[in-house]
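Reopening: Aspartate carbamoyltransferase still failing for me.
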Amino acid sequence: MSLQLTPSGQLKHLLTIDGLNKTTLLRILDLAEEFFDPKTKQIIQSDRLKGKTIANLFFENSTRTRSTFELAGKRLSANILNLNVQNSATSKGESLRDTVRNIEAMQCHIIVIRHMQSGAAHFVAQHVMPGVSVINAGDGWHAHPSQALLDMFTIRKHRGDFHKLNVAIVGDIKHSRVARSQIHALHLLGAKEIRIIGPKTLLPSYPESLGVNVYYDLTKGLKDVDVIMMLRLQTERMQQGLLPEGNAYYRMYGLTEDSLKLAHPNALIVHPGPINRGVEIQSDIADSPNAAILDQVTNGVAVRMAVMSLLSQARDQ
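Support: Ran it again with your exact input. Result attached.
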């Protein structure tokens, strides 16, 4: 039985892209589009979640993910409860399950959780009451589904049909929950080719098992790609010795004016942020017309509004 979908196929929790179907994914992207005013291109205000309460439970530091979830809830007219975990009972030894039970007792309808342990969102979803939905805002090395959804929304908005696109994911694939979710989403949407590019030390074991083409050389991997998805180096999750000394990583895998010339002339650049200028990407490339990095942030609000709306809709039926 699916933990994420109801027997009728409606979204019950959002935990991973793996396990979703194409219909559900497209439904989220299509609904996100409806939250943009067609004339002003601004995100509209809606009362779809009026009277509902959303709890943001972040056990890891976050700026844009947490802010966009909070803003998405407010745009839907929900009540927002932001828990400061560092000062909460969790820091005094309370278990995750007891923390969630207390949130349930406050009559919250949606719990957004980010946690350093892979599987934490699944654990919470398995233990919440039937009327509560869980959104995974990133768990360990495992998954970050809403980030992948906003990435797909951004690519579709700028480049259209996925079946025509060669997509390269560059950098620290090994530690990236974003990359895993992106790969699942690209497969669902039928991307023409998915490549991962990085040093062996930053790629997962048996990378071909992900259904991707693997490149250790950036100059070969970027040839004729239509979309370049850069990743942040997850140095907080690395053991020593995984990165070349000095600025060798930037010289070998940084997206620069020279390396960008190898891709399609109109290649789209996305990055989940925060970006490290001069480490993963040349500063003026990050600000170039090819980059949709800030548009991703805007799109993240609309996509998260869509996810919350569908979760609430399923629970009300």
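The longest strand covers residues 133-139. If you still see a failure, please send the error message rather than a screenshot.
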